[in-house]
Amino acid sequence: MKKFSIVVAGGGSTFTPGIVLMLLDNLDRFPIRQIKFYDNNEERQKQVADACEILLKEKAPEINFVATTDPETAFTDVDFVMAHIRVGLYAMREKDEKIPLKYGVVGQETCGPGGIAYGMRSIGGVLEILDYMEKYSPDAWMLNYSNPAAIVAEATRKLRPNSKIINICDMPVGIEERMARAVGLNSRKDMVVRYYGLNHFGWWTDIRDKEGNDLMPKIKEHVAQYGYSLQNEIEESQHLDESWMHTFAKAREVYAVDPDTLPNTYLKYYFYPQDEVAHSNPDYTRANEVMAGREKHVFGECNAIAARGNTEGTTLEIDEHASYIVDLARAIAYNTHERMLLIVPNNGAIVNFDETAMVEVPCIVGSNGPEPLTQGKIPQFQKGLMEQQVSVEKLVVEAWVEGSYQKLWQALTLSRIVPNARVAKQLLDDLIEANQEFWPELN
Ligand code: NAD
Ligand code: G6P
Ligand code: MN
């Protein structure tokens, strides 16, 4: 059986150890001969790499391990690039969240002004990695989950239309896991879903079990009462912090706006922006929570493993939910035709929507990539929201390509979360100042 070579781009990510453990746990389904880490921050990556090298020696010494900041070493001889980079690190995420809050506007990693600012940083970083892959391993596939996925996906569609990149998000995976538990199923894989939207901006329209029984009524009953909160929390979930519990509970109010569908959690920022601002602490945002929580834990554990020389007693855990990445790699490698939600060019999958939009819909994935499944026509409410949001995303990419101040101002003005053009301009000027090191020059 063929064994695969993969490179994790963003080797210094807080998610890297959990993904390596997940890959090791899945070796029988997806055999690996080589794992490489690539990052542009040598010091950050080294801490994670030193620990993962020890881990690999213990659990799978036959796997060749390389950690590097040299693109040629990283991207030569690989089958898959698994990319989770964060251009600007948490220091910039913190600014994306805090600058809007100064104006009473939602400050969030991927939504509104924060997402737009992050998009303007991320596009160049993701394109660079894609170009390295195509230069050194032209047959490889890039599985990208670097955020903001909606903007990054639009940029790669527009600028690298023939590249083998698939953009994927784990939020539907996480929500479906909760839906499954809510109706007493063991796993989201016992469900077949219909869904449409943009990334972090979509709706389920149909959910059935494997026998074809409609699960929507029972799930809706749960969501109408509890949102996506569960009586018995999923212990191995990535989304356990207090702020996530608030998000899952808030889905109740998001659902109420359109009880025909079940919503993605991220819609709360667009439907109830004032509530989110009121609930935020402008001096301590999610970035601070993540730095004090996940980052501290992961790097603390990695450094302890390196100092000890073994992984005994480590609290680093398998990121089991990340096994959707293995499902995707397998679908391509073995032509499994697995059905998965992916971010792909619309091309008529949503019949009454811009065919050039990057949409999130169920796809059948095989060795030639994803084939989107038609979701039919969407209602006026969702269409109106999506037209506005996709225009924001497209304007950001145009602004990045053209270096256009005007277009970025328009993007911010169009965002549902920003109250008016004047605030949009103030935000833009602050964000330009904060992102000097990362954004193209705007004129
Ligand atoms: P992190 O800051 O811990 O890790 C990101 C790493 O990327 C850092 O080590 C950084 O040095 C590196 N990096 C930045 N720019 C780079 C470049 N140009 N080339 C190579 N490496 C670069 O961040 P994290 O919280 O672990 O998240 C990583 C990414 O994964 C983020 O983009 C996050 O939004 C994304 N994410 C996406 C999903 C999803 O659903 N799609 C889920 C979870 C996380
Ligand atoms: C979900 C989203 C990701 C996002 C993450 C943020 O999983 O799908 O796109 O990056 O949440 O989580 P964090 O713990 O970093 O706030
Ligand atoms: Mn996501």
From TrEMBL:
<dbReference type="GO" id="GO:0005975">
    <property type="term" value="P:carbohydrate metabolic process"/>
</dbReference>
<feature type="site" description="Increases basicity of active site Tyr">
    <location>
        <position position="109"/>
    </location>
</feature>
<dbReference type="GO" id="GO:0046872">
    <property type="term" value="F:metal ion binding"/>
</dbReference>
<feature type="domain" description="Glycosyl hydrolase family 4 C-terminal">
    <location>
        <begin position="195"/>
        <end position="418"/>
    </location>
</feature>
<feature type="active site" description="Proton acceptor">
    <location>
        <position position="266"/>
    </location>
</feature>
<feature type="binding site">
    <location>
        <position position="93"/>
    </location>
    <ligand>
        <name>substrate</name>
    </ligand>
</feature>
<keyword id="KW-0170">Cobalt</keyword>
<feature type="binding site">
    <location>
        <position position="286"/>
    </location>
    <ligand>
        <name>substrate</name>
    </ligand>
</feature>
<keyword id="KW-1133">Transmembrane helix</keyword>
<keyword id="KW-0520">NAD</keyword>
<comment type="similarity">
    <text>Belongs to the glycosyl hydrolase 4 family.</text>
</comment>
<feature type="binding site">
    <location>
        <position position="147"/>
    </location>
    <ligand>
        <name>substrate</name>
    </ligand>
</feature>
<feature type="active site" description="Proton donor">
    <location>
        <position position="170"/>
    </location>
</feature>
<keyword id="KW-0812">Transmembrane</keyword>
<dbReference type="InterPro" id="IPR022616">
    <property type="entry name" value="Glyco_hydro_4_C"/>
</dbReference>
<keyword id="KW-0326">Glycosidase</keyword>
<dbReference type="InterPro" id="IPR036291">
    <property type="entry name" value="NAD(P)-bd_dom_sf"/>
</dbReference>
<keyword id="KW-0472">Membrane</keyword>
<keyword id="KW-0408">Iron</keyword>
<dbReference type="GO" id="GO:0016616">
    <property type="term" value="F:oxidoreductase activity, acting on the CH-OH group of donors, NAD or NADP as acceptor"/>
</dbReference>
<feature type="transmembrane region" description="Helical">
    <location>
        <begin position="6"/>
        <end position="24"/>
    </location>
</feature>
<dbReference type="Pfam" id="PF11975">
    <property type="entry name" value="Glyco_hydro_4C"/>
</dbReference>
<protein>
    <submittedName>
        <fullName>Maltose-6'-phosphate glucosidase malH</fullName>
    </submittedName>
</protein>
<dbReference type="InterPro" id="IPR019802">
    <property type="entry name" value="GlycHydrolase_4_CS"/>
</dbReference>
<dbReference type="InterPro" id="IPR001088">
    <property type="entry name" value="Glyco_hydro_4"/>
</dbReference>
<feature type="binding site">
    <location>
        <position position="169"/>
    </location>
    <ligand>
        <name>Mn(2+)</name>
    </ligand>
</feature>
<feature type="binding site">
    <location>
        <position position="200"/>
    </location>
    <ligand>
        <name>Mn(2+)</name>
    </ligand>
</feature>
<keyword id="KW-0378">Hydrolase</keyword>
<keyword id="KW-0464">Manganese</keyword>
<keyword id="KW-0533">Nickel</keyword>
<keyword id="KW-0479">Metal-binding</keyword>
<dbReference type="GO" id="GO:0004553">
    <property type="term" value="F:hydrolase activity, hydrolyzing O-glycosyl compounds"/>
</dbReference>
<dbReference type="Pfam" id="PF02056">
    <property type="entry name" value="Glyco_hydro_4"/>
</dbReference>
<dbReference type="InterPro" id="IPR015955">
    <property type="entry name" value="Lactate_DH/Glyco_Ohase_4_C"/>
</dbReference>
